[in-house]
Structure formats: structure tokens, C-alpha cells
């Protein structure tokens, strides 16, 4: 019996893809004018903490300056460029009415996560919110997911973890939870095959069929 559903945020609950890509394009143009941004590579980093990507790809610059520029670009555009995916609110309401415990496990920082959840008026659905600020290790390590389950006092084998990236799928598998892959990303089919994911959503409402 499923008692718990945990969600990634970016690319799972909210369509942040274009904003993230444009944010990276902005900092490449500002800090690495001699290097073209590889969009396919940037997409492959979705799901890992921003600081990890920045330390790897902008190590020749002051990382704090790069991140500040990235965040400033996002803050000014977030409300206009980010949207919840179809049927997210209805699905959360369905799960709440069936007494399913819910939480967020994201590599996004806490402030931007809380701001986004409040902006979309869905924060009330989640009894645990684990962000990149809350753990020393991050997805695909199981620690963030296990921290959420400990807060909720729930078991991983009765938990669905819904995400869009390889980091999410590996995190679920490492924790012994049931991985659920959203099917609306360009690499969803490849990920489903690579990780042998049985549960792939065509839209968020499909999640109700798994409860």
C-alpha cells in the first residue's frame, strides 16, 4: 500500500526548463564569451545542485559572482516564465484527500523552493521539504529522500518518488523507494529504458492510478 509520495520540483512539478537554460546562456555570455553553451550538456545537469555544476564548469571564475548573476537573472523572470505542469494542483488535492503524506526532495535551494511553492499556492500540501541546503550529500545519494521519510515517519517501500532526471531515479532506487518518472522531458524514454522504470507518467494525473 502506498502511504507517501515525494516529488522533485524542477521539471517535475514545475516547468523551469527554459528559465534554467536561459539562465545558463546568460552566465556563459557574461563569464565565458569564448565558449558556446552546450544545451544538451546543460540539460544533462538538471537535477544536480547548482553549486556542483558551477564548481565544475566555472572554476576559473569567482563562483559566488557567477551564482549571483545566475540567480539575479532568474529572480527577475521566474514569475513570468515558470508554470506548474498540467493537473499538478488537482493531483495534489486528490492525494491529500486520500491521506497520502507528501513531501518535496529537490536540489534547489530552500529560499527559492519555498518562494516557488508559495507563489504557486501549493506549499500547504507538503509536510516535508528537503532542499540542497538541508543535506551534506545530494541526489543521487539516498540521504535527502531518507531525511524526508524520517520527518514523515514513513517507509521507503511504501513511497513513490516522482522525478524527471537520472539523479531522481537513482535516488529512489538507492533508498529502496518506488521510482516514478515523468514522461514529458526529451530524455524520458531513454531514462525509462536505462533504469527499467515501470511507472512513467504521461501527465501528473496518471499518478492517481498508482495509489
Shape: globular
| Total count of strands | 8
Rounded to the nearest angstrom, the distance between the terminal CA atoms is 8 Å
Q: Beta fraction of the residues?
A: 5-15%
Helix content: 40-55%
Q: Any low-confidence stretches, pLDDT <50, length ≥5? A: none
Tell me the number of helical segments per DSSP (H or I, 4 or more residues long): 9
Q: How is the main sheet built?
A: 6 strands, parallel
**Rg calculated over all Cα atoms:** 17 Å
Classify the secondary structure makeup into a structural class.
alpha/beta
Architecture (CATH level 2) name of the largest domain: 3-Layer(aba) Sandwich
Architecture overview:
The chain has two domains: 4-15 and 83-210, HAD superfamily/HAD-like (Rossmann fold); 17-81, DNA polymerase, domain 1, CATH 1.10.150. The chain has nine helices and eight strands. It has helices spanning 17-31, 39-44, 50-57, 63-81, 88-97, 110-119, 143-152, 166-175, 188-194, and strands at residues 4-7, 14-15, 83-84, 101-105, 128-130, 159-163, 178-182, 199-201. The strands form two sheets. A six-stranded parallel sheet has the order 5-4-1-6-7-8, sandwiched between helices. α1 packs antiparallel against α4 (63-81). The longest helix is centred in the middle third of the chain and has 19 residues, at 63-81. The mean pLDDT is 94.
Question: What's the topology here?
Answer:
Layout: E1 4-7, E2 14-15, H1 17-31, H2 39-44, H3 50-57, H4 63-81, E3 83-84, H5 88-97, E4 101-105, H6 110-119, E5 128-130, H7 143-152, E6 159-163, H8 166-175, E7 178-182, H9 188-194, E8 199-201
Parallel strand pairs: 1-4, 1-6, 4-5, 6-7, 7-8
Antiparallel strand pairs: 2-3
Amino acid at each position: 500500500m502506498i502511504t507517501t509520495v515525494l516529488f522533485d520540483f524542477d521539471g517535475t512539478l514545475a516547468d523551469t526548463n527554459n528559465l534554467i537554460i536561459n539562465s545558463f546562456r546568460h552566465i556563459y555570455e557574461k563569464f565565458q564569451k569564448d565558449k558556446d553553451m552546450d544545451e544538451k550538456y546543460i540539460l544533462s545537469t538538471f537535477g544536480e545542485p547548482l553549486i556542483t555544476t558551477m564548481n565544475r564548469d566555472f572554476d576559473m571564475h569567482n563562483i559566488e559572482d557567477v551564482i549571483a548573476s545566475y540567480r539575479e537573472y532568474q529572480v527577475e523572470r521566474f514569475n513570468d516564465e515558470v508554470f506548474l505542469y498540467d493537473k499538478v494542483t488537482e493531483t495534489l488535492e486528490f492525494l491529500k484527500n486520500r491521506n497520502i503524506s507528501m513531501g518535496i526532495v529537490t536540489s534547489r535551494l530552500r529560499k527559492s523552493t519555498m518562494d516557488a511553492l508559495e507563489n504557486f499556492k501549493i506549499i500547504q500540501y507538503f509536510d516535508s521539504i528537503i532542499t540542497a541546503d538541508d543535506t551534506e550529500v545530494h541526489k543521487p545519494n539516498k540521504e535527502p529522500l531518507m531525511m524526508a521519510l524520517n520527518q514523515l515517519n514513513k517507509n521507503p517501500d511504501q513511497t513513490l518518488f516522482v522525478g524527471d532526471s537520472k539523479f531522481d531515479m537513482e535516488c529512489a532506487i538507492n533508498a529502496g523507494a518506488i521510482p516514478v518518472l515523468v514522461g514529458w522531458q526529451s530524455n524520458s524514454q531513454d531514462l525509462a529504458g536505462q533504469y527499467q522504470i515501470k511507472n512513467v507518467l504521461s501527465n501528473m494525473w496518471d499518478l492517481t492510478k498508482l495509489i
